[in-house]
Amino acid sequence: MGIREFVGRHRIASTAAAPAILGVAAIVAVTWAASPGPTAIDTEMTSSVTECHDMVTISVAGRGDTPREGETKMLLDANGNPLPAAMSGDYSSNWVDPVVNAPDNAVDPDSYAAVYIAYPANMASYEDAVNAGVANTESVMREIAVACPDTKFSIVGYSEGADVVRRVATKVGHDEADANGNYGVVDPNNVVGVVIFADAGRSAGDGPFIGAEDPFANPDGFDQKYQNGKNPTSGKGALPGTSGDFGALNGKIASFCSDGDLTCAAPENISLLQLAVNVGRQINVDALERDGLTPATGQDVAVTMGKIAFAAFADIANNPNWMQSDETFLDVLLKVSDPAYKPGATPPPATDASSISVDAMSPLAYLPQKIFKEIIGLVVTNQNTIPVVMSDPYNTTLGPNHSGHHFDYWRDANPETGKPLTSAEYAAAWLTELAKQAQNGEPVDKSVKPSQASLAAALSPEAETTTSTTTTTTTPATTTPGTTTPSTTAPTTTEAPTTTESTTAPATTTEPATTEPTTTTEAPTTTPTTTTATPAPVS
């Protein structure tokens, strides 16, 4: 089954939602998709970082889509201790699997492996979850690099996992060796490719291939055009504080963003909504989505907003020239609400030497001018706020039955406009070429052009269903489709897709009942008993 057929046959619902704050809840704040829950299988651990491969893909999937110790066989370090990761043969992601498993069919059995990073993948605190994902990704890459110094890495992230991958790739790309030639994570020369689907740190005007010789056509070293011409996606990422280039990894990046996916294509001048995003990154969105506005969730929101307000007044108090400056109170709120904000990190702007001495004039004298600037600033920086809110941003990004633009990457081919492959197919073909070069011990060839046979092999049915053969499973594994969290914003149809089968451990997949009242099926739980699975109610 090809990637397009995979998406067409399996209706996969999202459970991501945006926080209900400041009266503009369902916006770009938290539109990171969720895939079905972790696969429940035998917990015997067999795979180790000491089983070296020419190339390993580090995969970080989206919200709710992560291996969990006790439910998934975890990767072991060189001393036999479990790492926060699982081989792709032991864990399956409905969205990411077709991409990261594509090289399996094109190289020798032991040459390539894909690993899924375990991390919270929730929104009890978005920032904490992403930071944990970054730490886990870095630790797994370090362990593999120490055990297998010749291994090359590719990194793939989607949705919430895309934020993790951007931050890891940024750190790796800007790292420098110490006096002993060691790097904080891995040598950036050993990272041959990075794929980011729905890049929340994307800058306005960025092409898909950041830092490449042709940022709109292809990454360096892969002479297969993604699209004809220069067609930048409008807008920018919802988390501009994570933006930037990738240093030594520039040219090895594929950052895909679909028009209409407000996680990576948010319009300019929506500062109130950006403030909502920053608040949403610090509150328990999972609880707010699940329980609605209760005393507990309301307190969580109030405490977070109170902390932001206190930080704003403290920031202003530390700038004696604030009344004379052009900085508005909304500017201050946006600055201090960013989870990365550090008080005192940015010195106050210098006062114009030609102006009247601050000591000689009361700050109140600037009040009329300051009020005027506040009003103008509020209007100018929110020109697109109302249009975005009126466009139903939740459904635009995460429409029911994966109809939103957050899922375009598996269906966005358009041969008539010079885009023959979907973003996922293109990424699969690129990773396949990188794996072949790694197997042959070749440096990245900037002139290589994949043959039609190579592309066909990368996108063949085996590319999706074959997993790493380095993992040995002696008993069949039974997968339990995850349920989705009820959405408080937009109704969705909850259906679990078929789980990719492993060639080493045939998986038996059962689907839970759909929202149609006449359909009932049985789904196994993580215990040996069998129960009837009913999708979570949708409000």
Which structural class should the secondary elements be placed in?
A: alpha/beta
| Uncertain residue segments | 5-46, 350-358, 461-539
Count of β-strands: 10
Question: Number of helical runs?
Answer: 14
Chain oligomer state? single chain
Biggest β-sheet strands, sense, barrel: 6 strands, mixed
**Helical residues, percent:** 25-40%
Q: End-to-end span in angstroms?
A: 34 Å
Write down the Rg.
24 Å
Summarize the structure in words:
Helix content is 28%, strand content 8%. It is an alpha/beta fold and 539 residues long. Strands 2-3-1-4-5-6 form a six-stranded mixed beta sheet, with helices on both faces. The chain has a two-stranded parallel ribbon with strand order 7-8. Helix 3 packs across helix 4 (160-174). Residues 5-46, 350-358 and 461-539 have low confidence and may be disordered. Keywords: Disulfide bond, Hydrolase, Membrane, Serine esterase, Transmembrane, Transmembrane helix.
Summarize this entry quickly:
The chain has 539 residues and is α/β, with parallel strands linked by helices. It has helices at 3-9, 97-100, 126-147, 160-174, 271-280, 285-291, 295-317, 329-337, 367-380, 385-390, 393-398, 423-439, 452-458, 461-465, and strands at residues 55-60, 85-87, 112-117, 152-158, 191-197, 253-256, 477-479, 507-509, 522-524, 530-532.
